[in-house]
Sequence to fold (256 residues):
Amino acid sequence: MALQRTGADRALPPAAEHVVELLRSWGRGPDHLTGLALAGIALPGPRFVDALVFTRTGVVVIAAHEPGPDPGSGERAGAAVAAAKGALSGHEGGRYVTGLVAVVPGAPGWTEPATVPGVAVVLADPRSLRRIIVQHNRWRTVWSADDVLDACYALSLAHLAPPRSALVADGFPARLPARSRLPELPAVVPVPAEPPPAAEDAGEPAVPLPRRPGSVVFPRPRPIRQVPWGLLTVLALLVTVGVIAAVFVAQVFHGS
Fold:
């Protein structure tokens, strides 16, 4: 990570000096982290910022905070985020700006600064600060070396911009690859109307459609007829009476 600082002869607050040393430790070496850190700067407004960090995946605005009474570090970081987004609105990477309050380790039981929407609070030790910077929008590269240089001009910080070759050597891509845009489609796709059925000629006989192989023709269901239970009952009674009459007549004639 390259570090540029305004007013090197002017001392920063102790909390800001602590954060700057952490950022400087991630330069060339085993703990290298690709990025450009601008320390002790003022954004349009003006908004004083302890550090502004460009990475390949976003921008982090850092407000250093010492344990003790809260001087409004969260509000200061939130205002700086809004100023940075406004100045970088012409860049796609300007959408990925986040605020961070870095609390310098101190006596146990320190009071966490007041939370502000869009601003995170982290302990300013090497592991915690590095992890939250690395994890910021880590899935997509949105800043190239050319974009970072343009952003420095947009923020009126061109005097702090390092050479393009230095940014590329640090790990920034020279430029972002062009993204292919999808063709614009209408919101409603018109569906062509179906053609009207052809009129049948009365003089031509109907030709049955050929049956496709494997097709099954189901027989038409027969209508269910109701059983005449009343008529069956009458017929049964007549048969029974006839049988009884026949038996009676046979007994009479045999008995006589």
Q: What stands out?
A: The beta strands are 2-5, 36-43, 47-55, 58-65, 97-103, 119-123. The two ends are 139 Å apart (CA to CA). The mean pLDDT is 79. Helices lie at 14-24, 73-87, 126-134, 145-154, 164-170, 229-255.
